[in-house]
Amino acid sequence: MRYVIIRDDDTNALTPVECLERLYRPFLERGLPVNLAVVPDVRSDVRLPDGRREGFLLARRPGTPEFVPLASNAALTDYLHDNPSYNVAQHGCHHDYFEFDLADRGEIVRRLEHGALRMREAGFANVSTFVAPHDKLSRLAYQEVARRFPVISTGWFELRRLPPAWWPRYAMKKLFAQPHWRFGRTRLLSHPGCLLSHTRPLETMLDSIKQVIARGRLTVLVTHWWEYFRAGHPDEKFIAALHETARYLATQSDICVTTFDALASGNMTLPRASDLIAVSAISAR
Question: Are 146 and 183 in contact (CB under 8 A)?
Answer without folding.
Answer: yes
